[in-house]
Target: N-acetyltransferase ESCO acetyl-transferase domain-containing protein
Amino acid sequence: MRFYTSVCSFQISKIQDIVNPSVGFAPDLSIWGWDERRTVWVSIVTEGSTHYIAAIVVTEPLLSAQCSITGETIRPNAPIVGVNRLWTHPAARRKGIASETLDVIRKWYFTGVLVPRTRVAFSDPTDIGRQFAERYLRNEGQSNCSVLTYRVSK
Model:
């Protein structure tokens, strides 16, 4: 099992070289963070005989997040999933892959709890990331589309 972990860590470090600059992070910023509470989710798509990584999402459990419209701090009366980084392959964009991946994460992140879309927070989203988050909430029937955000801890 140790070999598997080290191989995965090596592959993830290669992935961060692609993902970090794409989402506005420094290329050498660690995926794991100082407390190593983050989880990396990878969505692999098969098209014909071709397989490729369609999405990578780095998540972390949160104790609080801020409402982007009011600035109000939301505390956990229910679990909050923090999306530290979300990247989709250019060929997979606008196909629902990121939404599907987040839906899987919401189902499996906390044992026995389906986290509502309204309890998913995004770390310092780019303009495109904010647009995605608003669409993601709108698809849940949220009319005000107030995105939860949080500051990344190194």
